[in-house]
Design goal:
Shape: elongated
Number of strands: 2
Distance between the termini: 37 Å
Radius of gyration: 18 Å
Largest sheet: 2 strands, antiparallel
Order of helices and strands: HHHHEEH
CATH class of one domain: Mainly Alpha
Length: about 100
């Protein structure tokens, strides 16, 4: 029910398991997500062309395929926590997989 109304309202909601929230998750003041996005752009819009291209290549690759990367790009994506080092190959982190879905 909306406050002050006696009629029920149907709504789609999205929620996260509070135990699995990212470390940098924050409450949006007043729930005004549009203003929040203007003040702090989403991660996908802050990525460079090289970064987004590599994430897309890595996301489309098969499990055993090795996708070459230069060292500076490797450091940038590791600092953003978008990739993880699996020893002989790189893979997308959970956050990287979400970013890949939004880039595709």
């Amino acid at each position: 029910y909306i406050e002050g109304s006696s009629e029920p309202v149907k709504a789609w909601t999205y929620f996260l398991n509070s135990l699995k929230l990212p470390v940098n998750a924050a409450v949006i003041p007043g729930g005004d997500w549009k203003r929040s996005i203007e003040e702090q752009p989403v991660l996908t819009s802050k990525l460079t062309e090289k970064q987004s291209t590599y994430i897309q290549r890595l996301g489309r690759s098969s499990g055993r395929e090795i996708v070459p990367i230069d060292l500076t790009l490797y450091r940038e994506l590791m600092n953003l926590e978008l990739i993880v080092d699996k020893g002989r190959r790189l893979a997308l982190s959970k956050l990287g997989q979400e970013v890949f879905k939004h880039l595709a």
